Amino acid sequence: MTVGEARAETAAEAAGEAGRASLRADAWHDLRRRRTFWGSAATLAAVTAMAAFPGLFTGTAANEGCDPNSAKLGPSREHWFGTDLAGCDYYAHVVHGARPTLLIGVAVTLSALAIAVLFGTLSGYYGGVLDTVVSRLTDVFFGLPFVLGGTVILVAFPGHGVGAMTLVLVLLGWTTMIRIMRAQVIAVRDADYVQAARLLGASDRRVMARHVLPNAIAPVIVVATLNVGNVIVGEATLDFLGVGLQYPQVSWGLQLGQAKDAFMVHPHLLIFPAAFLSATVLSFLLLGDAVRDALDPKLR
After folding, report:
1. Which residues of the chain have pLDDT under 70?
2. Which of 2, 90, 136, 215 could form a disulfide with 81 if both were Cys (CB 3.0 to 4.6 A apart)?
3. C-alpha angle 280/285/290, rounded to 5°?
4. End-to-end CA distance of the chain
């Protein structure tokens, strides 16, 4: 690459960075004006603090101080959310249940996002045999139902914990994002600025990192934000069915599973974990919608 070509590519990259910075600034300006963004962000911040630092919310550890003689008591001054079937403080269980639920949702989404960005970019950019193999493999996994597939795998391999749940859900949860990533890369790879970078002698790695990926990843980020809520629902469903996390672990899905037979007599067993689960999932969905609207100028 000559000095003139290097300067031209540097100028093109500077112009592209300025455009992306302007887009990010516009998106942030739009997000700041949305009440749904601040409401969902505040809810998720509270749930994240609850998951990371449960000691700030309760001084009782999970499954600590349980008294069978005080089982299934309703909310009171001593037990804000009542007690569960074993006489454990239900508020403490709800607080500690946030960690595995949120951890699995975020870990699965980040892992699936990494797979989608890597293989979606490579298959969309190069095409050919690589694109065919990735596309057909995606079709195979896309045909596996999320909850049913997770149930079959987890039943076949009992004794699983958070790590195993995360691996199973990653195995079944990357297909949508990789399809979107591949489609975006195919739409971007023949753009004028990408062709100009190639003509100036930029390597494929540089073109993908500097020009293709920054202009193709925004829709995938939006889907990833929405996907966290879907993964949390899937994890809670597997726990509810009895094939996910197992006692003495604590999660909102497990609490819902334990409450299903006693709901009519002791409704607090279902109401509190369901409220926290619903608020968390709804916040991720609203946050994803707000980010989508902010990143897409056509929707403003």
Report:
1. 1-28, 158-159, 296-300
2. 90
3. 125
4. 42
Tell the residue number behind the tokens 């619903």, with chain if given: 278
Residue with tokens 């309703």: 74
Query: Is 121 in contact with 185 (CB distance < 8 Å)?
Result: yes
The pLDDT assigned to 181 comes to: 93
What domain count does the chain have? Answer: 1
Q: Which of 265, 255, 275, 260 is nearest to 84 (CA)?
A: 255
CATH assignment of the domain containing 284: 1.10.3720.10
* pLDDT computed for residue 243 by the predictor: 85
Q: Kindly state the tokens that stand for 247.
A: 């006692």
What does pTM read for this prediction? 0.83
What letter does residue 174 receive in the DSSP assignment? S
Q: Quote the domain boundaries for residue 183.
A: 3-299
Q: Are 37 and 290 in contact (CB under 8 A)?
A: yes
Question: What single letter denotes the amino acid at residue 123?
Answer: S
Give the Cα separation of 186 and 189 in Å (integer): 5
